Amino acid sequence: MRFVYFFMILLLTGCTSSLTPKPAVKGEFLNEFNTGYAGYAWEFQDNEGKSIWQSSISLLLDDYVNPKIRNVDYDAFEELRESLDDSKFMVMWFTKDWKEYYFNAALIQRAMDRGKIPVFLYWYFGDDFATGDFIKVVDQKRKGYAKMNKKVVDFLNQLNGEVILILEPEFNKQNVLESQETKEVFVKIMRCALTYFELNVSDNINLHLGLSMNDNGSKYKDEAFDCGYEHCALGDKYTWNRSINVFKELSDNLDIVSFSLMLSQFSRGAENPNKPHRYKNEKLGIGYLPQRIANLSNELHTQLDKPVFLSHLVMATGTWSDTNRNEEIEENEINTNGWNREVYETYSKFDYNLFRQNGMFGLALMNLFDDPKHDMGGYNYFLQNEHHLGVLSTGTHAESLQAKDGELKFKTFNEIKLIDLIYKR
């Protein structure tokens, strides 16, 4: 460990140091385009309804399926393995509640030795930035963040090879960008963290440090204002640039830049978060999404001269029709696969060569599975659609708040599995 104690103090007291500009980042994978999947291990239930875990790495490397999974369908798990076989990036999350025993470093290393690259999305502040006073959140959590940074680097230092660590996915919440003061505070604490990881990571690791924004711009083709493109469904340069300016402040500390894109036919309302809001497809830019992804990647790559990664991509498949017009979501108003066609038509138009030409080296789906327990106790921005984020569902009822069972159901349209539109190309 190098300078650990010194930089822990800097992080606690206010860090102003920065590294000299980084040299060109090594890593042959940056010159290619590859896909990724989400999950070190997936939570299922056993025959007693207790949680049980299926290692994604063991499935891919050893064809191992945990036999204790309730209603386990071995053939379906084999189909899943075949779909993911060529996927390069393994996306895992460090959260504020993460414990060292959640991940097995030796198992991850086995996958790395087989050519896989771990991508760690480090979600510490997360939605606290969206729901609380930003400055107070930072002050209250600064010491905990410093301690967590040490836990993260200690875990990473058990590995050997290429590793990607992306800080604060979806950092560009309104509370972060609302004033010059809040932006400066965010930049300061991120620079401290990035510097800490850079100086304390083992020499055995080629660490690629990043930061990830969410695409919060307008996606409406017929928007009344100018977004910098022919229409706003193709991109929103002015909204994007608010986040890109933060990237620029941290450019010397970053190896890669990243973004996420999440769409749902319904979510919390922008003006009244306590009321659900349903969006027409044209408001969400369906039909233009592949070109929009290329355009955002181009903006990031051109302005920052960094490789670009789409860190977590979500298109929720559920739809909602407020048939009784009471502005409340009821179970019989949800069609769990009502957006399968839109997902199919969007993913089938993905052009990985186009993405690569615009600076991207890869993308990953955020969720492979619909998960009834997803974001339990969290903000649940997509409301019931938080349980329909995957390209597979299971036999467990979506609103049961129970872990998945092993009855895997591949979501399809036109008899094509949605998962294969991403991974089998």
What does this protein look like?
- This protein has 425 residues and is α/β, with parallel strands linked by helices.
- It has one domain (32-423): Alpha-Beta Barrel (TIM Barrel).
- The N and C termini lie far apart (42 Å).
- Strand 7, helix 9 and strand 8 form a beta-alpha-beta unit.
- The strands form six sheets. It has an eight-stranded parallel β-barrel.
- The protein has helices at 4-13, 56-62, 74-84, 105-113, 128-131, 134-156, 174-177, 180-200, 237-249, 289-304, 340-347, 352-357, 418-423; strands at residues 34-38, 41-45, 51-55, 89-95, 117-123, 161-167, 205-214, 257-263, 266-268, 276-278, 308-315, 319-320, 334-335, 360-365, 392-393, 409-410, 412-413, 416-417.
- The protein is built from 13 helices and 18 strands.
- Mean pLDDT is 92; it is low at 1-14.
- Helix 1 runs antiparallel to helix 8 (180-200).
- The longest helix has 23 residues, at 134-156.
